């Protein structure tokens, strides 16, 4: 979640929905810039360019974060704060709004934020899960093996196949519990991690007044750009799995069992946003 008083917006960063690219372009307008100045300035270029950089620079900035400024997890595990966390309120990019200091902050400042543009991006649930597979299985596997003599794109492409996806989906709780607990089900809250938990309170009432659709992102971002006075029209798509012309369109990877699993876990999103398989 990025809060900007200078441009009067709140961006709720939903995982796997173009949030990283947008966050990088909104970073310099974040209130955290004032909180960490001048240390934030050491890293703003890296945030905007959407690339990793010298970790020692991150450590210098993290040491300057005031006590109590981070969510409880990051307060206790500051070593997990990276360059991408720096623009986000309380340094948590994908905060589950199910109570705690972030909810209190939003509720206590509801009057102030009344006229702010408060927006989030959602994507078709089956496409959303396929994107998680591509990033957390295919890409992460290549990252562990790759060196400069190898073709990164070819290695990733080889790992994006139906057999690998179905193996991931059919055995996700047993073989990929870390991914399951991060993206599918939160043990602490006993909560299915529908995308709306990142911009709704525990009663599923939305803090966001604008919900953008990943499939028509260019059109929606044009409207947001006009509203907040920041040009987001040229944000590149980081993941094209939703493109029906792509050879890796998600519908070709599912079977009935995996399709039902997504339908059960992400039922609230599917109903709220009228997601349909293949659309």
Architecture overview:
The longest helix is centred in the middle third of the chain and has 21 residues, at 125-145. Helix 7 crosses helix 8. The chain has 14 helices and 6 strands. The protein is α/β, with parallel strands linked by helices.
Task: Summarize the helices and strands and which ones pair or pack.
Blueprint: E1 2-4, E2 9-12, H1 19-26, H2 32-36, H3 44-48, H4 55-62, H5 72-76, H6 101-108, E3 117-122, H7 125-145, H8 152-159, H9 162-170, H10 172-175, H11 177-184, E4 185-186, E5 191-192, E6 210-213, H12 217-228, H13 256-265, H14 267-272
Parallel strand pairs: 2-3, 3-6
Antiparallel strand pairs: 1-2, 4-5
Low-confidence stretches: 238-245
Structural class: alpha/beta
Strand order of the largest sheet: 1-2-3-6
Biggest sheet character:
4 strands, mixed
Helix content: 40-55%
Give the termini separation. Answer: 28 Å
User: Whole-number average pLDDT?
Assistant: 89
Counted by DSSP, the helix tally is 14
Order of helices and strands: EEHHHHHHEHHHHHEEEHHH
> Strand portion, in percent?
5-15%
Rg (CA only)? 19 Å
Overall geometry comes to globular
Number of strands: 6
